[in-house]
């Protein structure tokens, strides 16, 4: 399967999921943003990366539970809106990039503070 087709499927999946998440009425769900979708070349599985606000442990945990419980419904919508032979199994994963960015910012601030203390 061409990588260009997988990229198109990834983008279509991201758009459909982002739209359908706004329709979920689960109170456990925080403000979710789908940042990326990575489908396998055979389109059997799709890893869906997301961020959630507010960025606290309780909201992240409850959002993960809400997404896990909505996987079947979301997958049904994907199947209804896309013309695929097989609808990929969806696996939601919190995007690690924002946390890494915050960690880097914290390290930079610590380094600046240490330089200011040494000067």
Short note summarizing the structure:
The chain is α+β, with helices and mostly antiparallel strands and 119 residues long. The chain has three helices and three strands.
List keywords for this structure.
55% helix; elongated; GMP Synthetase, Chain A, domain 3; alpha+beta; 3 helices; 119 residues
How would you summarize the topology of this molecule?
Layout: H1 3-21, E1 31-39, E2 45-53, H2 57-81, E3 89-94, H3 97-118
Helix pairs in contact: 1-2
Describe this structure in words.
By secondary structure, the protein is an alpha+beta fold. The chain has one domain: 2-Layer Sandwich (GMP Synthetase, Chain A, domain 3). It has three helices and three strands; from the N terminus they run H-E-E-H-E-H. It has a three-stranded mixed β-sheet. Strand 1 and strand 2 form a beta hairpin. Helix 1 crosses helix 2. The model has no long low-confidence stretch (mean pLDDT 89).
Q: What sort of overall outline do the alpha carbons produce when their principal axes are compared? A: elongated
- Domain count: the total is 1
By secondary-structure content and strand pairing, the structural class works out as alpha+beta
Question: What distance lies between the first and last C-alpha atoms, to the nearest angstrom?
Answer: 59 Å
Number of separate helices:
3
